[in-house]
Design goal:
Number of strands: 32
Distance between the termini: 34 Å
Helix content: 25-40%
RNA sequence: CGGGGCGUAGCUCAGCUUGGCUAGAGCGCCUGGUUUGGGACCAGGAAGUCGGAGGUUCAAAUCCUCUCGCCCCGACCA
C-alpha cells in the first residue's frame, strides 16, 4: 500500500488519556481512535494487525479440529434467564428492550446460544464430540473501562465451545486447545505463561489462563522463580507452615486467656494500634453463611481470605459474608468482636487456615462487644480437629510463601486466553442431551476456550516497544516491510523504490511504500513509531553507489546492500523472522 | 457505585486563585517562498457555543448551583 493513500494519522504528543505504553502508542501510531469510553475505531493499521491475528487464530483452531460458525451478537434474554446468568452477570450484562418489548442481550459470551444450538441438533453420542468456535464482537458493560483496548466495553473474542460424551474425550479436546493456544501465542510473537486458574466443577487442573507477563497487567500471577509452577491468585496453592518442634511446648507455657477492654475498636488495624501488637499476632474471625449453614473461617490478621479456596473447603457450597444479624446471633457481640472460642458448637463448620493452626497464640475478639482476648491458643481455646472442624489453605498467597518448597513470586500479567472445563452446567439447564450407547439420556460435557484478539495486539506492543515507538513481531505487524524513498521528486530514487516495492509484493511480502512528499526526518520518525519490522531506505547518495539501506526495527544501524540483492535479502530476512515465530518450539 | 482529578482551537496545554481590554502559546492545518538523511525556516492565513443549562454581577473562561462527558484509585473478566 501507499502511505500517501492510507489513513495513518500519527501524533507526536502523548495523548493525555493514555497511561500505559501500548495505549499511547496505538494512538500515536494511528492504530486506533477512541469513540467513547471503552469503544475504539481501528484505523487501517490497527485493523490490519487484528486481521493478521485473526488469521493465525483461525488457522490454528481449524488445525486443532474446531469448526467455525458465526453466532449473533443479539441474544434473547430468555436464554440468559434459563441459565441463571442474567443474575450472575448483573450490571456487566448489556441489554435493551426492543420495540416489541422483548429483552435483548448484547452478547458478552455465547454459552447459551451454542448450547441451545447443540440441544436442537445433536441427539446421539455418534455425533460427538463437536468443537464450535466463532470470532466475533463481544459487549460487556464494564464498571470501569481502562487501559485503552485492554479493558474495553466492546472487544473481539475468539470463543470456542466443545461438547463431549465423556470426561476423557473432553480432556483430549482440552489438551488440543491448550496446545493450539500455545501455537497461537507463539506465532503472534508473545512471551506468555499458562497459569493454573481456579478449577471448574470438574476439578483437577481444569482451567488455565494464558498470561503475558508485563507491568500493565491487571492480573496477578503467582509463580515459582523458574515458572515450574504458575497460578493466578485465586488458585495459587501455598505450603502449610512447617511444624515447629517447639510449638507444643510454647503453647503449654502460654498463659491463660485474658480479656481486654477495647471500646469501639473493631478492625484489625484499630486493635493493633490500641494494643500495640502486629496484625500477624491477630486471629481474624470471618463469619459466612451458605443457605442456613453458618461457616466461620479463621485467618491470621495479616492475611486475606480466598473465597474460592474457602468454597472448596466447604465442598463447593456458595458462600456469602454473613449479615450483621447472623454475626450478632452467633457471637452475641457486635461486628468486629468475633472470636473462635466456644464457637464450634454453635456453627455448621469451623475452617482454620494453616497459618492460624501454626500460631502459638493470638489476639482475637471476645464474642463480647468492646472486648478482645489475648493468649488464645489454637487447640486449647478452640478446636483444630473434630467433626465440623477443618484445617486448610484458605487464604491468598503473600510474599514469603512457598509451594512445594519453592518460594513464590508475584508478577503482573495480561490475560490473553483462557481454557476451561465447563462440565454440564449449561447442557443440563438447556437440555443439551444425547443418547449414549445404552440408549441413556446424558447431558453433554462441555469445555470453553476464549482468546482476546485485541488484547493480543495491545500486549504485543506492551512487550515490544522502545522510546521511538512500537517494535512489532512480524506475524502481527500491519506490514512486514516499509520502503522509504528519501526525496520522492528524484526520479531515480523514486523509481528504485517503486521497483523494490513491486518486487517485494511479487515475492509475497506485505509492503508499505512511504511515498509522501515529506522531509526525511518525518519519515524516519514515523517509520520507528509504526514498528514495521523491516525497513528499506532508498537515498540519493547510496543509490549512486548502487546500494540501499536495510534495517530491522530492532537494530540500531542499517546495512548497505546492493540494489539488485535488496529484495531477495529482505524476503529472506522476513522469512527468518517468521520462522522464529513458527509456534512449533516453545 | 464510592473517592480524586480534568473539560479552553484538530492535538498538548496556559489563563481561573484576586471577575474587566480583541481569549493565548506550541504542535498540526491552508497559501507562497526558501529548504531536503532523524519530526526545517520565513511570511501570511483559517480555526474556539471556553462541555452544557441556570444563577450572581454593570461585566463571567474566571464566582455559585445543577447537569453531561472523560481520566485516575478500589470489588469482575477476553
Amino acid at each position: 500500500m501507499r502511505y500517501s493513500q492510507t489513513l495513518i494519522p500519527t501524533v507526536k504528543e502523548v495523548p493525555a488519556e493514555a497511561e500505559i505504553p501500548s495505549h499511547q502508542l496505538m494512538i500515536r501510531a494511528g492504530f486506533i481512535r477512541k469513540v467513547a469510553s471503552g469503544t475504539y475505531t481501528y484505523l487501517p493499521l490497527g485493523n490490519r494487525s487484528l486481521l493478521k491475528i485473526i488469521a493465525i487464530v483461525r488457522e490454528e483452531m481449524n488445525r486443532a479440529g474446531a469448526q467455525e460458525i458465526l453466532m449473533p451478537v443479539l441474544q434473547p434474554m430468555e436464554l440468559w434467564e434459563a441459565t441463571g446468568r442474567r443474575e450472575d452477570y448483573g450490571e456487566t450484562l448489556a441489554w435493551f428492550e426492543d420495540r416489541h418489548g422483548r429483552e435483548n442481550v448484547l452478547a458478552p459470551t455465547a454459552e447459551e446460544v451454542v448450547t441451545s444450538l447443540v440441544a436442537a441438533e445433536i441427539n446421539s453420542y455418534r455425533q460427538l464430540p463437536v468443537n464450535l468456535y466463532q470470532i466475533n464482537t463481544k459487549v460487556r458493560d464494564e464498571f470501569r473501562p481502562r487501559f485503552g483496548v485492554l479493558r474495553s466495553r466492546e472487544f473481539i473474542m475468539k470463543d470456542a465451545y466443545s461438547f463431549h460424551a465423556n470426561v476423557d474425550d473432553l480432556e483430549k479436546t482440552y489438551r488440543a486447545m491448550y496446545d493450539a493456544y500455545c501455537r497461537i501465542f507463539s506465532r503472534c510473537g508473545l512471551k506468555y505463561v499458562a497459569v493454573e486458574a481456579d478449577s471448574g466443577p470438574i476439578g483437577g487442573s481444569a482451567s488455565h489462563e494464558f498470561m503475558v507477563p508485563c507491568s500493565a497487567g491487571e492480573d496477578v500471577i503467582v509463580h515459582a522463580e523458574d515458572f515450574s509452577y504458575a497460578a493466578n491468585l485465586e488458585k495459587a496453592e501455598i505450603d502449610a507452615p512447617a511444624a515447629s518442634p517447639q510449638l507444643a511446648a510454647a503453647r503449654q507455657a502460654a498463659p491463660a486467656m485474658e480479656e481486654v477492654h477495647t471500646p469501639g475498636v473493631g478492625s484489625i488495624e484499630a486493635v493493633c494500634n490500641f494494643l500495640k501488637n502486629r496484625p500477624a499476632d491477630m486471629i481474624k474471625t470471618l463469619v459466612y453463611t451458605s443457605g442456613k449453614d453458618v461457616i466461620v473461617a479463621l485467618l491470621r490478621g495479616d492475611h486475606e481470605a480466598n473465597e474460592n479456596k474457602l468454597r472448596r473447603a466447604c465442598d463447593g457450597a456458595a458462600l456469602e459474608m454473613a449479615p450483621p444479624e447472623v454475626i450478632k446471633n452467633v457471637t452475641s457481640a457486635a461486628v468486629g468482636f468475633a472470636g473462635p472460642q466456644g464457637l464450634a458448637g454453635k456453627i455448621t463448620r469451623l475452617i482454620v487456615d494453616n497459618s492460624v493452626a501454626a500460631m502459638t497464640s493470638g489476639v482475637t475478639g471476645a464474642n463480647k462487644t468492646d472486648y478482645h482476648v489475648r493468649n488464645v491458643v489454637p487447640g486449647r481455646d478452640f478446636p483444630l480437629s473434630g467433626a465440623n472442624v477443618v484445617v486448610a489453605d484458605i487464604r491468598n498467597a503473600v510474599d514469603g510463601d512457598t509451594r512445594g518448597g519453592k518460594a513464590l513470586k508475584f508478577s503482573r500479567g495480561i490475560e490473553v486466553g483462557h481454557v476451561f472445563k465447563l462440565g454440564t452446567k449449561y447442557s443440563q439447564k438447556l437440555s443439551a442431551n444425547f443418547l449414549d450407547e445404552q440408549g441413556q439420556k446424558q447431558p453433554c460435557i462441555m469445555g470453553c476456550y476464549g482468546i482476546g484478539i485485541n488484547r493480543i495486539l495491545a500486549s504485543a506492543i506492551e512487550m515490544g516497544h522502545d522510546d521511538n515507538g512500537c517494535v512489532l513481531p512480524i506475524a502481527i505487524a500491519p506490514f512486514e516491510v516499509l520502503v522509504v524513498p528519501i526525496n520522492i521528486s528524484n526520479p531515480e530514487v523514486m523509481g528504485a523504490a517503486e521497483r523494490i516495492y513491486k518486487d517485494l509484493q511479487a515475492g509475497g511480502a506485505d509492503v508499505l511504500l512511504d511515498d509522501r512528499d515529506a522531509r526525511p526526518g518525518v519519515k524516519f520518525k514515523d517509520a520507528d513509531l509504526l514498528g514495521i519490522p523491516l525497513r528499506i531506505v532508498v537515498g540519493e547518495k547510496s543509490l549512486k553507489e548502487g546500494k540501499v539501506e536495510l534495517k530491522a526495527r530492532t537494530e540500531a544501524k542499517p546495512t548497505l546492500v546492493d540494489l539488485g540483492a535488496a529484495v531477495a535479502r529482505t524476503l529472506d530476512l522476513a522469512a527468518q523472522l517468521k520462522s522464529q515465530l513458527s509456534g512449533e518450539s516453545r
